[in-house]
Amino acid sequence: MATKPAEFGTTTTGSATANNIAEMWSRWYINRQPLVEEWKEQRAFLFATDTTTTSQADNGWKNSTTLPKLTQVRDNLHSNYLSALFPNDDWLRWEAYTKDAATKSKANAIEAYMSNKVRQGKFRKTVSTLLYDYIDKGNCFATVEFVARYKDLGGEQVPDFIGPKIVRIAPEDIVFDPTANSFEESPKIIRSVRSIGEIKEMALDNPDDAYLQEAVAGLLHKRENARENGIEDNDKAIGYQQDGFGNLQEYYASGYVEFLEFIGDYHDSTTGDLYRNRCITVIDRDIVLRDEEIKSWHGAANIAHAGWRLRPDNLWAMGPLANLVGMQYRMDHLENAKADAFDLAIHPPLKIIGDVDEFNWGPGEELHMEPGSDVQEMQRNAAWVGQADTGIDRLESRMEQFAGAPREAMGIRTPGEKTAFEVAELQNASGRIFQEKITTFETEVLEPILNAMLESGRRNLDTNDVIRTMDEDLGIQEFLTITREDITANGKLRPIGARHFATQAQLLQNLTQLMNSNLGAQVQPHTSGIALAKLVEDVLGLERRSLFKPNVAVFEQQQTQRLATQAQEDLSAEDAVEEPVVEGEGEQV
Q: Are the C-beta atoms of residues 340 and 349 closer than 8 Å to each other?
């Protein structure tokens, strides 16, 4: 795959590499600023309690009600996306590429290891946050880190969590070349701001960040020296501000450190050398802490990106709510215009004619005026106001459709009497946009991140790891000892939640319709009951329940009949036993 390397030029101050990366971050960040402003406006509507905090604050209306339709569409999409991704606990599958990797023990070890790390690493919670990015900003980014965290219990270091974890990257904290052919081919820069304490924890907990241990002392020394310099000296030394801080003096005094991490290929225009698959960490925009090859075994960055609505020739995608903000604005406009019109109808302005003394307008009030003077209500025709409700309802319905939300899943049923199969067919048809978007998230984020987690576990697991699992046959907990060899195999992890969710509904619907039709009666003699049972078991995910076995019902019925016959024979034998005769007291011998 051809990548698009970044171009590094020459600079005159500080580290050339660090300054190139800092300049590239600033350039891409400024170019993306119009998109960030759109995110801010949308966020204001999502969390608004009235229109005074939105771009509709100066609309001139007395009322400032906001109808939280945009928020409701967001919540609807998020809950349905999350339910589709994780319909049950059995959503992860190991797909082997070789015979050795397909053994039951190998598959069980890999699935058990990953299920354990997914559960302990709060994978579902992080994915939930990623889905909010996917909906709110149209772009979500995730990466993987290996954590080896211990806790002190009575002077003994006890493992707290050892394994790979998914990590969210906020869309505001990453920039890349949006003109590249794909996100994977583009160089990337990730920005983060951390305290000295956080840096020390990272150096202890994350094997990939062990290089930070030596950097902490240098960071502290540099900040002590910077505090002794005047503001003018610092401003003169470096003539730009750190993002999120004031001048450089304030930045050093804050106790925080800015990290810029460049990932990808770059070309040195001075020497003409091309560097591939590099990971460069820069702090304070002038110090290079790390410049090395990406550590993953497959040689590429473990960063995944998914876009909701792709733009032509631009990798920054559009979210489902972006072009609904104007409709939300219109809906709030109608609601407040209607409310103001009702207020005018209930309490209209007064027209005062002639010389009228000051008065209070209300029931039972007396008005004193000169002859020929008068006070009149200015009547307004408010019959049209009721039409605003129709316009608002139409906007609400369209917003649901435009966002691709599954309306039937919310309990909103379209008019008309329908059979169960017609309802299922309408659900599948109306949810195609929804299904396509969540499948994109599953294939472009979850699948690469899960395999990156497995790769990180293989690379960093240098001791045995004990995993708690459940024996489905016995229904008891057991503990497996996992080694690096146990989880090393040629294959791929595949999340099947969303794809299984859609396939299940469609397949069962089509199969049921077939079996209840005339065509089903014709193919019935040629249908394998055992194969049909296996299909139902696979579609419904019942493999571990051992519910279907070849002719198991016949054997169970024979066993039941055998037990019933034996019980009847035992009862008859008891009835056939004669009771002993007891001689009476008055009988003569």
A: no
Query: What pairs with residue 159 in β-bridges?
Result: 150
CA–CA separation, 548 and 187 (whole Å): 51
Average pLDDT for 212-218: 74
Model-level pTM? Answer: 0.78
Which phi and psi angles does 405 have, rounded to 5°? -80, 140
For residue 242, what pLDDT is reported?
47
The torsion angles phi and psi of 59, rounded to 5 degrees, stand at -85, -5
Q: What is the mean pLDDT of residues 408-430?
A: 51
pLDDT tens by residue, 165-194: 999 999 999 999 999 999 999 999 999 988
CA 412 to CA 73: how far, in whole Å? 13
Q: Using an 8 Å Cβ cutoff, are 210 and 203 in contact?
A: yes
Closest residue by Cα to residue 27 from 133, 175, 142: 175
Classify residue 295 by burial, with Cβ atoms within 10 Å: 0-12, 13-18, 19+: middle
- According to the model, what pLDDT value does residue 448 have? 93
Closest CA to 299 of 278, 275, 268: 278
Q: 211-215, 304-308, 416-420, 561-565: lowest mean pLDDT where?
A: 416-420
Q: Give the span between the Cα atoms of 441 and 423, in whole angstroms.
A: 27
d(CA 457, CA 330): 51
The length of the chain, given as a count of residues: 589
What average pLDDT does the chain have?
Answer: 80
Report the C-alpha gap between 309 and 172 in whole angstroms. Answer: 18
For residue 585, the tally of other CB atoms under 10 A from its CB is 5
Q: What is the bridge-based pairing of β-strands 476-482 and 465-471? A: antiparallel
Helices 497-515/529-539 angle, 10° precision: 140
Tens digit of each residue's pLDDT (9 = 90 or more) over 19-58: 899 999 999 999 999 999 999 999 999 999 998 888 887 7
Say how many Å lie between the first and final Cα of the chain, rounded: 115
C-alpha to C-alpha distance for 9 and 22, rounded to whole angstroms: 12
Give the pairing type, strands 188-195 and 374-377: unpaired
- Structure tokens, 10: 């020459």
Cβ atoms of 143 and 304 closer than 8 Å: yes
Higher pLDDT, 294 or 305: 305
Q: What is the DSSP string of 458-514?
A: HHH--S-EEEEEEETTTTEEEEEEE-TTTT--SEEEEE-HHHHHHHHHHHHHHHHHH
How many of the other CB atoms lie within 10 Å of CB of 486?
21
Let me know: does 357 contact 85? Beta carbons within 8 Å.
no
Backbone angles phi, psi at 8, to 5 degrees: -100, 125
Query: What distance in Å separates the CA atoms of residue 110 and residue 106, rounded to the nearest whole number?
Result: 6
Residue 357 has pLDDT above 80, yes or no: yes
Integer Cα distance of 456 and 433 in angstroms: 34
Q: Find, among 446, 504, 441, the residue nearest to 77 by Cα.
A: 441
